[in-house]
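Write out the 3D structure for:
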Amino acid sequence: MPDVDLDDLAARVTRLADAAAGRRVLVGVVGAPGSGKSTLAKRLANRLTADGWPAVRVPMDGFHLADVALAERRLLDRKGAPETFDAHGYLNLLRRLRAETGHDVLAPGFERDLEQPIAASITVAPSHRVVLTEGNYLLDDADPWPEVHAELDEVWFVDLDDGRRRSRLVDRHVKHGKTPEAAQAWVDEVDEPNARRVLARSGTADLVVPSP
């Protein structure tokens, strides 16, 4: 697959924004764990903003349940699976971003060093014409993910071969404190079942984009 072309992607978003006639545009960026969704969304937001289309990245990861909530639900060992997110909270935020354009809307982020969501850490200002929101399950068919999909103007799937993606994941887990053995076990037992679920829905995306 060829390298990602930010010029082409930026042009695609600006066409969506032109067609929206002043309405805020929401583009979803989906992919399996480790595929490069966050990197793509960050780079594209910067490109759009530099080109005069103010854009902001709002990750689905801000709706990870905190570890205390995961422990209550006995889900700590499944962190990253669909049931470990506040999906309805995420859906409500997307609806707010669509409807509330006259004032700042504060969105949660996710701190990788802590592996925890951080409330009200991302400002979506009235000037932001484009929101790039990325996450694993934007194309999932379980409730309420189809409603999430319906709030997005387009959803793009980020493609990366499994070997490179898995290697990235192991490196990420080691960077954030796991031993290499524990990192590999987590990828095999937790990340990969989630990845298979995401990959199964890739055919429903509006566009397939190579990983940056």
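The mean pLDDT is 96.
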